[in-house]
Amino acid sequence: MLSFPSSSPPGFSSYNGGGMNGTSTMMDFLEEPLPGVGTYEDFNTIDWVREKSRDRDRHREITSRSKESTWALIHSVSDAFSGWLLMLLIGLLAGSLAGLIDISAHWMTDLKEGVCLAGFWFNHEHCCWKSNTTFTDRDKCPEWKSWSQLILGHGEGAFAYILNYFMYVVWALLFSLLAVLLVKGFAPYACGSGIPEIKTILSGFIIRGYLGKWTLIIKTITLVLAVSSGLSLGKEGPLVHVACCCGNILCHLFTKYRKNEAKRREVLSAAAAAGVSVAFGAPIGGVLFSLEEVSYYFPLKTLWRSFFAALVAAFTLRSINPFGNSRLVLFYVEFHMPWHLLELVPFILLGIFGGLWGAFFIRSNIAWCRRRKTTKLGKYPVLEVFVVTAITALLAFPNEYTRMSTSELISELFNDCGILDSSKLCEYVNDFNSTKGDDLPDRAAGPGVYTAMWQLALALIMKVFITIFTFGMKVPSGLFIPSMAVGAIAGRLLGVAMEQLAYYHHDWAIFSGWCSQGADCITPGLYAMVGAAACLGGVTRMTVSLVVIMFELTGGLEYIVPLMAAAMTSKWVADAIGREGIYDAHIRLNGYPFLEAKEEFSHKTLAMDVMRPRRNDPPLTVITQDSMTVEDVESIINETTYSGYPVVVSRESQRLVGFVLRRDLIISIENARKKQDGIVSTSVIYFTDHSPPLPPSSPSMLKLRSILDLSPFTVTDQTPMEIVVDIFRKLGLRQCLVTHNGWKRRDLLFPEACHWQGSSPCWGVLGPADILPNSLPPGIHLSESTARSLGLKIIGSEQFVLERTLKLIQFQPPATGRDTFL
Question: Which residues form a coiled coil (predicted)?
Answer without folding.
Answer: none
